[in-house]
Amino acid sequence: MSYDLAAIVLIVIGAVLVIASLIFFLRPRWLLGWLKGMAVFGALILGIYTLSIAVSLTGYQSLEGMQTVASISTTRQGDQLWRVTVERKNQAPITEAVHGDQWQMDARILRFSGPIRWLGIAPGYRLERLSGRYTSLEQERTDPRTVIGLSGGRWPDLWALDRQFNLPFIEGVYGNATFMPMRDGAIFDVRLSSSGLVAVPVNPQARQAVEQWGGQ
């Protein structure tokens, strides 16, 4: 489009907007009705958004400072096959068979800003899944993978919506995935802060697994 044609198009658009605005001011009842309608529509959208945040928060736990969010214990069942037990606060333990050499846990974190933060609402977290990993890249590509969901699907999922549409006053971030080697009888604590996850060995078997893993 040439500059001359672009100028004509912009003049037409600008003139239409100015004339429409003058009509509103010359007939104030139109303007008042329009403003009322926009105010009601805005209040409706804000109310729906607030309710959506409230419903979504029921699927998250409050995160204030560094805290232990889960305990992981592993028991050997066979070659690269483990029985893994996940214990979480205020929830029933989960025990599943996991293939691999390492376990990995992922979490979702919701942070808030603006009016929501002014209300004193702390960031929230949700443990998302536990999965198995192989040390060998070839096995990682070809061998069976184990993925265990730790949270039920909820709607609306504001975390996913924020990642797609960049919602106001909400920031959905991944809690940096943490992973550790499997070892018979090992127990790890999984701790979480607003910056991510970290696994901490809590018994001799776990500490020995980490030392041998780090020395490879």
UniProtKB/TrEMBL annotation:
TM regions (residue ranges): 6-26, 38-60
Alphabetical keyword list: Membrane, Transmembrane, Transmembrane helix
Source species, domain of life: Bacteria
UniProt name for this protein: Multidrug transporter
UniProt lineage: Bacteria, Pseudomonadati, Pseudomonadota, Gammaproteobacteria, Pseudomonadales
